[in-house]
Amino acid sequence: MAASSYDAVADLYDAVVTFDADLPFLVEAARAAGGPVLELTAGTGRASLPLAREGVELVCVDGSRPMLDVLERRLRDERLAAEVVCADVRDLDLGRPFPLALFPFHALHELVEPDDRARALAAVRRHVADGGRFVCTLHNPAVRAASIDGEERALGEGADAAGRRVELRGRFTLDPATTIVTGTQTWSVDGVERATVPVRFALFAPDAFEAEARAAGFEVEERFGDYDRAPFDAERSPHAIFVLG
User: Fold this and answer.
1) Mind listing the pLDDT tens digit for each residue in 115-168?
2) SS3 assignment, position 242
């Protein structure tokens, strides 16, 4: 992605974004790949650190330099190794292929325009080796849309490295005509508002993603509804997890 709206809260991000249900799935995919792994939208290392701890040879890409600064500090603190690259996924050109590329945590939805997704998928295709795999995790629109009602909600709370209390609240609305979600996240530290972050993403359907992926040269090998590899159910599955080749 391009420079992130999360730049201003990079130092707070890990205190409240603690989702980890996908990590065993990603680690298993990385082990099976048997070679270097390209992680896209790596951020501050939510998935990067667990992968690096498993000895995975890793290239971490993100468009936010402040987020990557946090990742690099965390790698140093744990004496872990990974290559870190600040780049827009849509224009990525590392000049080498990978047996596995990961696009986790529903990040592709932040590319709202189909042309931007097409550019990103074409860039990923250039970086996946012959016989390699691309794992992309998406929202299930039917399930995700049910939690978007324009009301402000608590999204997370935790302590940062300095012991400060970090709170995250958000308010989002969905335009059913465009399937675009807009809203804001409010980040507070010890009860004092620190930053308001704009949010915008598109709830495109899994079938639409399949068509876009095929146009980029991928074939769908597997599609799951959760990280336990349950079959995808359009009405109930919390996620749409694609393994492409």
Assistant:
1) 999 999 999 999 999 999 999 999 999 999 999 999 999 999 999 989 999 999
2) strand
pTM above 0.90, yes or no: yes
Spatial distance between the Cα atoms of 143 and 108, rounded to a whole number of angstroms? 17
State the SS3 of 80-139: CCCEEEECCHHHCCCCCCEEEEEECCCHHHHCCCHHHHHHHHHHHHHHEEEEEEEEEEEE
DSSP string spanning 157-219? Answer: EEE-TT--EEEEEEEEEEETTTTEEEEEEEEEETTEEEEEEEEEEE---HHHHHHHHHHTT--
Give the C-alpha separation, 167 to 186, whole Å. 8
Residue range 46-84, pLDDT digits in tens: 999 999 999 999 999 999 999 999 999 999 999 999 999
Sign of CA dihedral 48, 87, 244, 132: negative
